[in-house]
UniProtKB/TrEMBL annotation:
The lineage of its organism: Bacteria, Bacillati, Bacillota, Bacilli, Lactobacillales. Binds 2 Zn(2+) ions per subunit. One is catalytic and the other provides a structural contribution. InterPro entries: Aldolase_TIM (IPR013785), Class_II_FBP_aldolase (IPR050246), FBA_II (IPR000771). This is Ketose-bisphosphate aldolase. SUPFAM superfamilies: Aldolase. The active site is at D80. One of its GO terms (biological process) is carbohydrate metabolic process. Transmembrane segments: none annotated.
Length: 287
């Protein structure tokens, strides 16, 4: 089934689990996420960045929507890091049930203004909106981008931002970065800051840059109030590493021979994340 982000994360918040938002950019990675979600009865978010959307095109999105609509598992189809109102409108026209407007690099008042504009637009057609306050780091290995110096989300500003924009979910900055972290770099999340934000804000909270963080930190983040965790690099890196290995060592050139082992590599990561986020067997809460 295909539902809104508001509905999905309300259930997650009430039942103290988080939902993975997995960035997909082709049919094989999409297949890995959907089939594992159905196997584990785990509600799941399919996230697509505007760059990915321009690559896969609207025809692919039509297939994605039909596949999700007919599944017994609840799914959200989410635009990740929409950079403009135009990006948002494109996604809504393609049938996305949730959109993100990322104006986090703008001044506070400008961020509020554009986010509220998107909320007013999207809510008229029943589409959920995610905003972002604070800035996510950038390892240089992701299309989502980010900044060199993280600007941490301030709890009081988060409260004001939510109240003035009406967003359904809020992405916060507590020390993560997009992409795979460089070898030897150990990220540290400000989990006390997360607790402070969760105490001020009623809407579900989102953690971007979930790849490469320690399992212990992510587990505690879920316990302290994160309901959505974005995963992209962690499912793509093993997929393409396996693809390279297959092409280097085998002489088969048929897609049905080359891609299945790559899909299995992504599935293994998705299963680990779903267990870590405590979303396995949570479909029962949506019936």
């Amino acid at each position: 089934m295909l539902i809104s982000m508001e509905k999905m994360l309300k259930v997650a918040k009430e039942n103290k689990f988080a939902v993975g938002a997995y960035n997909i950019s082709d049919a094989n990675i999409f297949k890995a996420v959907v089939e594992k979600a159905e196997e584990l009865n785990a509600p799941t978010i399919i996230a697509i960045h505007p760059d990915e959307l321009s690559f896969v095109t609207g025809e692919f999105i039509a297939y994605v929507r039909e596949r999700l609509w007919n599944s017994p598992v609840p799914f959200v189809l989410h635009l990740d890091h929409g950079g403009s109102v135009k990006d948002v409108i494109t996604a809504i026209n393609h049938g996305f049930t949730s959109v993100m407007i990322d104006a986090s690099l703008l001044a506070f008042e400008e961020n509020i203004a554009i986010t509220k504009k998107v909320v007013d637009l999207a809510h008229t057609v029943g589409v959920s909106v995610e905003g972002e306050l604070g800035t996510i780091g950038d390892t240089g290995a992701s299309i989502e981008g980010g900044v060199t110096e993280i600007t941490y989300t301030k709890p009081k500003e988060a409260k004001e931002f939510v109240e003035r924009t009406g967003v359904d979910t809020l992405a916060i900055a507590i020390g993560t970065a997009h992409g795979i972290y460089p070898e030897g770099f150990v990220p540290k999340l400000k989990l006390d800051l997360l607790s402070e934000i969760a105490a001020e804000v009623d809407v579900p909270l989102v953690l971007h840059g979930g790849s490469s963080n320690s399992d212990d930190e992510l587990r505690v983040a879920v316990e302290k109030g994160i309901q959505k965790i974005n995963i992209s690099s962690d499912i793509k890196k093993p997929y393409f590493a396996k693809l390279q290995d297959v092409l280097n060592n085998d002489f088969f050139w048929e897609p049905n021979t080359v891609f299945p082992p790559c899909i299995l590599e992504s599935k293994a990561v998705v299963e680990d994340k779903m267990n870590l986020f405590n979303s396995v067997d949570k479909v029962k809460y949506f019936n």
